[in-house]
Amino acid sequence: MSRARNENGAPTGARRPGTRAGWVLVAVGAAALLMRFGVGGVLIEVVWLAAILTAAAWTWRLIERRRRPGAEDGGRWSRRLPVLIVAGFGLFAMLTLNQLAGVAALASIALFSWLLFASASTARRRATGFAVVGGLFSTLAAVAAVGQLLPSWDSGVIFFLGMTATFTLVYLLPREQGGARWALWPALAWAALTLLVNDPSGGLGRWMLPLALIGAGVALIGYRRGKR
Fold first, then answer.
1. Which of 28-32, 131-135, 154-158, 200-204 has the lowest mean pLDDT?
2. Can you count the helices (H) and strands (E) in the chain?
3. Do residues 128 and 178 touch, judged by C-beta distance below 8 A?
4. What is the torsional sign of CA 199, 201, 204, 209?
5. Per-residue buried b or exposed e for 1-26, using 16+ beta carbons within 10 Å of the residue's own CB
6. How far apart are CA 63 and CA 60, in angstroms?
7. Separation between Cα atoms, residue 209 and residue 80, nearest integer Å
8. Which of 73, 93, 103, 144 stands the most exposed, by the fewest C-beta atoms within 10 Å?
9. How far is CA 48 from CA 61, 102, 147, in A?
10. pLDDT digits 0-9 by tens, 72-87
11. Are 160 and 190 in contact (CB under 8 A)?
């Protein structure tokens, strides 16, 4: 059964192209309005930073969709344009934020790495590197953000968990998407370090069996995916 179409020929249930852009503008405008009225604080800065990074990602995607497959698209200028986009949005965030200026710098690098990782034109080996770099800077941004939002928390735990998640993700990804089987060993090493850091009582032995089970499960999942 064919879907109903409107007078412009588009499906009636389809989302209009400007919908996402409209929501991004609403989020940025609302955060700017709150800051204008003096409603400050780190939570408002979190909303502001999230809106700016969303706008950067949306702009990147818009340019990627408009590129013609196989075309040069302006040579060096086209290759540098995504860098300028994320750098511009990141610089704007850093200049307009107070407590989260450092977080904005780290988050911008992380966003740039993840966008390159997800780009269809990125080679598999380069995608693996971008995933590792993106995970690293995402972890650093999370550590810095937790330090501002919850100063009493031990942000070092966040770092170890983030690195464990980064290499686990790289291991579980399909090979054609940048996955790598060698990432299992760094993932297990970071997981072991996480347990050591959070074991002040010295009872690490009680955690060895759960850790071994988790490692075996992750290895089995990655092995099965690699066979597909």
1. 200-204
2. 8, 0
3. yes
4. negative
5. eeeeeeeeeeeeeeeeeeeeeeebee
6. 5
7. 49
8. 73
9. 20, 14, 18
10. 444 455 556 777 888 8
11. yes
Beta bridge partners of 5: 11
Rounded Cα–Cα distance for residues 161 and 67 (Å): 37
Query: And the tokens for 10?
Result: 């588009």
Average pLDDT estimate for 37-42? 59
User: Tokens in use for 4?
Assistant: 């109903």
Q: Tally the residues of the chain.
A: 228
Phi, psi of 11 (to 5 degrees): -60, 140
Mean pLDDT, rounded, for 164-173:
90
If pLDDT is split at 50, 70 and 90, which confidence band does 215 have? low
Q: 163: Cβ–Cβ under 8 A, 6 or more apart, which residues?
A: 135, 136, 139, 186, 190
Contact assessment for residue 24 and residue 58, using Cβ atoms and an 8 Å cutoff: yes
Higher pLDDT, 16 or 83: 83
d(CA 196, CA 207): 10
Q: Report the alpha-carbon distance of residue 227 to residue 224 in Å, rounded.
A: 5
